[in-house]
Amino acid sequence: MAMWQGAMDNRGFQQGSFNSFRSSSSDEDLMDIPGTAMDFSMREDVPPLDGEIEEDRSYNGGGIGSSNRMMDFLEEPIPGVGTYDDFNTIDWVREKSRDRDRHREITNKSKESTWALIHSVSDAFSGWLLMLLIGLLSGSLAGLIDISAHWMTDLKEGICTEGFWFNHEHCCWNSDHVTFEDRDKCPEWNSWSQLIISTDEGAFAYIVNYFMYVLWALLFAFLAVSLVKVFAPYACGSGIPEIKTILSGFIIRGYLGKWTLIIKTITLVLAVSSGLSLGKEGPLVHVACCCGNILCHCFNKYRKNEAKRREVLSAAAAAGVSVAFGAPIGGVLFSLEEVSYYFPLKTLWRSFFAALVAAFTLRSINPFGNSRLVLFYVEFHTPWHLFELVPFILLGIFGGLWGALFIRTNIAWCRKRKTTQLGRYPVVEVLVVTAITAILAFPNEYTRMSTSELISELFNDCGLLDSSKLCDYENRFNTSKGGELPDRPAGVGVYSAMWQLALTLILKIVITIFTFGMKIPSGLFIPSMAVGAIAGRLLGVGMEQLAYYHHDWAIFNSWCSQGADCITPGLYAMVGAAACLGGVTRMTVSLVVIMFELTGGLEYIVPLMAAAMTSKWVADALGREGIYDAHIRLNGYPFLEAKEEFAHKTLAMDVMKPRRNDPLLTVLTQDSMTVEDVETIISETTYSGFPVVVSRESQRLVGFVLRRDLIISIENARKKQDGVVSTSIIYFTEHSPPMPPYTPPTLKLRNILDLSPFTVTDLTPMEIVVDIFRKLGLRQCLVTHNGRLLGIITKKDVLKHIAQMANQDPDSILFN
């Protein structure tokens, strides 16, 4: 009895209980059941003639018995019919068809009255209004997260006596006792040792500050993991793998609900402030998608149609990247390249508008006080030279190697977490990793600072007034042409910084493997960029010193004369950051545009493109999957990747169910089964839908009906219609079948029947079937032979077959 199965058993419907179905839903969840009546019935565009109506009313198939009435209760729409179960896939074709019918009806009515015309205009404008609201809310939340995280990060080291709500930088802005060289030191800002033991010098003061740093980190991490565990388990991780799966049509109730949004926003601040090797950029995409899903409830057009809602979520993902990096165009391209499954041209325009509004909102809030959208915005003015493509490509190779290494080790650790006792103690795991990170981070100033500040320091192009150790060069010149500093010999501070950065690189590489995937909000963009930026800065300083001391070498003498500004180490850091991020995520176009928007320089596109492509080639040679696709496979999400080709020569008959020697396909007949027969099939099976045939002997296909719609319709008929009993005949035809007199009323369910299910023949190549599933977003496809129904292929069957052909475990394709 091989039938189409959902990703999980429909436990609430085993006994056909509509009450259990209603109790399992929540109005703030991703796929809610609206309390208002929804008209998902299949309507004709041309109304029937009066004579046809009278004929339909007069024909009831019941002979002379007045009690034998035709019960077509679906003439009135029923809440819940046409919606989907949790952990199931939406029917893209049906959803788009419904939207076209709705739009056609609104257009026809707009010609009848002024009010209908106004309604038509408001319906067309509602999409842009929704994008405006998403941009405003996403930008506001991003600004709140940035400000809060900056303050709480500084709280680990001290507090401002003028006002505890000021972070370190803001506390010293208005101080009259600050020198330019020591602009981070002011009497208004007190470290914890100054507050506790009234001194900031000596070994005991260092121990006090060390202890308070670790204590605050543990407190923030404990609060974050506890809130996630108790209130919103879906708020953990970056959220991008799940969002990719949801945008492909899968349903995860509550993943984009209001509780997830509230807890994710709070715990993201706590997790970033704890000093763990994670970022807020990935989770900001989840936050923006939560905003989009919740705001969809204000507009019936999006609340009642899952395909339209996913267009909104694609635009919300673009807004999330826009506020994460201050890159509106990069956000749109990220949504198109990385997360979206269905991205029509209309969604492209609206994504651009949402990203624009979100970036403008964040710019108005000005969370960093520098009129920039990110902390590590930088501008370079020195041109790059052709020879420098060699070290840029080397950084690309490093990024690809790092990406492949990280994906393999992180997936292995996450699999160990899922399959061992470790996964049962998420709080202990988070606290242990936080303690190790804080203890190792405090002695090194580059690991002690936040990762965004570290990237900003590494991207920085040293000037005369910079007091950073990375800019501690020996000044052996009198003037500088055009305000540009020539290459200079490194001083003691630079050499000290190089050793510290090398240790920082090792710590970041190791600790990020164990941090990503814990039960707290954790992004991967910033840690990956930090690894690449450190490697790039180390290589850039090395190239700079090589050019200074050996400017007469053949590789330098044609373009780098003594006293010229030849090498920009900050540019190498930026290219390295792009290479490592590309190696982990396998992004290319969107990555280059994001980095370009960060720097504001068109002339650095070629180095970024070279590094991004090299890192992708190297990483793909070692493993085809990016980190998000790898986590999708690890979690067993039914995601059909559109980027991979299916190259095996198998046929539909090799994949369909039932297989040879399996029980026959469970089907419903169009006019010969009773309510009891159908309820028995529902209670004895867990299939999510049933083909409807003319008869069991002929196996001629009529249509396909969903289990959920059957349960709701029968339950509603029992409650609202008199005379419907277990022996009532259910029929899916236009007219009721001839019945003996004085039989119970028949039950017409034609309006919940899909009359045009997608079918293929048994000899159709699987490469065509896979393309059909990808491009049409099908849930299932029926297999026929000479017009007779043979079997069924579901999306999960396709995924299992692909896994089997790739020598992977096919049973891993289920929602874990």
From TrEMBL:
Ranges annotated as spanning the membrane: 125-145, 210-235, 312-336, 386-407, 427-444, 497-517, 524-543, 571-596
Stretches of the chain forming a coiled coil according to its record: none
Cellular component GO terms held in the UniProt record: early endosome; endosome membrane; Golgi membrane; plasma membrane; synaptic vesicle
Alphabetical list of InterPro entries matching this protein: CBS_dom, CBS_dom_sf, Cl-channel_core, Cl_channel-5, ClC
Membrane-protein topology: Multi-pass membrane protein
Keyword tags: Antiport, ATP-binding, CBS domain, Cell membrane, Chloride, Endosome, Golgi apparatus, Ion transport, Membrane, Nucleotide-binding, Repeat, Transmembrane, Transmembrane helix, Transport, Ubl conjugation
Localization (cell): Cell membrane; Endosome membrane; Golgi apparatus membrane; Membrane
Stretches the record annotates as Disordered: 1-28
Function: Proton-coupled chloride transporter. Functions as antiport system and exchanges chloride ions against protons. Important for normal acidification of the endosome lumen. May play an important role in renal tubular function. The CLC channel family contains both chloride channels and proton-coupled anion transporters that exchange chloride or another anion for protons. The absence of conserved gating glutamate residues is typical for family members that function as channels.
Name used for this protein in its record: Chloride channel protein
Organism: Zalophus californianus
Lineage: Eukaryota, Metazoa, Chordata, Craniata, Vertebrata
